[in-house]
Amino acid sequence: MGRVLVVGGGPAGMMAAVFAARRGLEVHLLEKNEKLGKKLYITGKGRCNVTNACDVEELFPAVMTNSKFLYSAFYSFTNHDVMDFFEQSGVPLKTERGGRVFPESDHSSDIIRALERELKKAGVKIHLHCEVKNILVDEGEARGVELCDRTMMEAEDVIVATGGLSYQSTGSTGDGYRFAKETGHNVTEQKPSLVPLRTKEDYIPRLQGLSLKNTGLTIKNGKKILYQDFGEMMFTHFGVTGPMILSASAHIGKALEKGTLSAWLDLKPALSHEQLDARILREFEAAPNRQFKNVIGVLFPSSLTPVILELGGISPEKVIHEISREERKKFGDLIKAFPFTITGMGEFKEAIITRGGVSVKQINPGTMESKVMKHLYFIGEVLDLDAVTGGYNLQIAWSTAYAAANAVGR
Q: How far apart are CA 147 and CA 305, in angstroms?
């Protein structure tokens, strides 16, 4: 019976251990924390967006880096297979806006408990407080690991599932990148992804805490549109965040390294310019003798009104019937394109995932085995793979884990 060591007890590591053990292999799961799934516990704001319920071919456009590499993995263990796995493990699931799949309970702990049940059922030996120091290599092949207490554990195969650099408090400290480099692999530069964005304007921090739903977002680099979306966002003391902003960060990272980017919010995306103008005109006609500042409040959340007044180009004290058609149109343009400048990205401590990692050119896409060193496998976030929000990054973890689990011990 082949012996397999899985380094890292996150989503990829747990899933790989389950499927390898189901094949009758002796599997040891090594986790340096006091419990499994520490980072999984906080994903999706503690709700755990397990996968996305889209058609399998729709997974690929959501992957920002090296999507073609995942062809075999995604089709071997699809998003629908993942949903079946958890439902059969006793976790009822639900699908929300944008195909996002969550446990019905909204508790990520249900997903972790299901994986723990399956690990136990399959006979996986779990080692907590067990930190790996090095991969043991003999004659160019992986032969096991050395632990930080100098213990040697030998095995036929080693699967590295150590995650990236995001949420370092959960133990994602980049160990896997070091293991990869020390065993002769190329590792691309790591950057935070799915992060809040920093902005230049002083009026943005004044809106701190304001959440907007159903808002349009456009980000440009000069005249080139880099990103357009519609959804939820929130203002912070340093910039903007929220689901739509996090997804934008995955698209604009490379361009932002070269300089600032221009961005606009469409505060009334359901209305065309003409419809919005008609709406403003209705408000104006209903109160022709009131001051501008006392009329426009109905159009916005109260905290947004002072900033809109400031940028609107119309004196707040001006009486409605004195406002020209030109001024009114210009005000409508501001509502359809509320401007700000993106100056940078959040740090790793704010990032949901890591962009960059072990070069997939050196990994077999069907098995996740290294092309550089036999019996060594890399899965999940440690690889140079990343996707937008919506359950896609966890799908990468599940699919790559399944591929490695079916390849080890052969």
A: 59
